[in-house]
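quick one, 367 residues, struct below
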Amino acid sequence: MSRITLNSNNCAVLIEASPAFKTFDSASTLFGGVQNVSFSVPLSRETKRQVGSCYYGVDDLVRHPDVDLNIDYLFSPTMINEDYLGLNVRPRYIPEPTPPTQEGGLLSGIDSKSYNFYIYNHPDQGSDAVEYLKGDDKLYPNSGEIISFGNAYLSSYSLSFAVGSLPTASTKFKCSNMKAENYTGLTQSPAINLSAGNNVGVGNFIGSQTKTVEQDFYGSTFDLDLTNPVTASPGDLTIELQNIQVGGQKIDVTNHLINSMSIDIPISRVDLHGLGSDYVRGRKIQYPSRGTINISSLVSRYETGFISGLLANESTYEFSLTVKDCQGLTYSEFTFDRAKLENFEYNTTVNDEMQYSASFSFSIDNK
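---
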């Protein structure tokens, strides 16, 4: 049947690997477990008044607008989406007797990574976009819509863990271009050649070759189905925290009940503009990035400590987080060195438990 309203089951998000601008045709990959996707186009407008008039003499756009793209998805210990984004990750397998040492931090190697994203909308009200893309029907274009985003640069990455909900990841991107068209065959890539300021010679997006399975992910005989995300439950987390020197609630795992934990990593970029082009020439990352860890828990007791000596002798802390998948096949580890306490807060209200929250910062570079 025809579509009356566009529902979430009609939509699927696809990612095309870096670099965004290519002079050859390229297929994309299903970006699995997406929970929310949004985009906006803020316009940069210059307004000037002039003597002798109460109206604007100039009210014009001064440069091509950027596109803000936000994608939230279920976090998977396989970290397959993070791998597609070019983050320096490697899942570990159970059992794995001698896992290799991973070199570099999370952001190492991501400086020049840019991607193309596609939102595919199935034209049938009762059909699922993911089912269409995983089957043979995708070989036959069905005039569904494709909203494409070119030259997407990652500008923020965050993780959220909370009691009673599955772990989620949130990403934000700055894009240089956006297009919308019907899927009738080969679709021109939305990517811009940023060095030239045009899309001359750009290749096509091949929707019929969309990848929905990662071959040999668990070895030579086991594949990863991208349409069925491997998730983790709140009970699959192992958190190791150091108690803070200011006293109060102990934050090691044996002494308190964690309600939630979040990790936020903003990626600050400088937009490089140049004469002779409507587009940015590049989006250079400013290092180091300063991330934050936020912890919320219930208070069991108040321990002694000190705050008056922080200026002379401030401590730093080491935290680690291990996330296993629900099937017990893979796990991912996050370690944070030299984290610094930024804020801690206690709160109690009538007929409720005392709540505790703390915030830590850490620096992350491209090494």
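Residues 8-44+63-364 form one domain.
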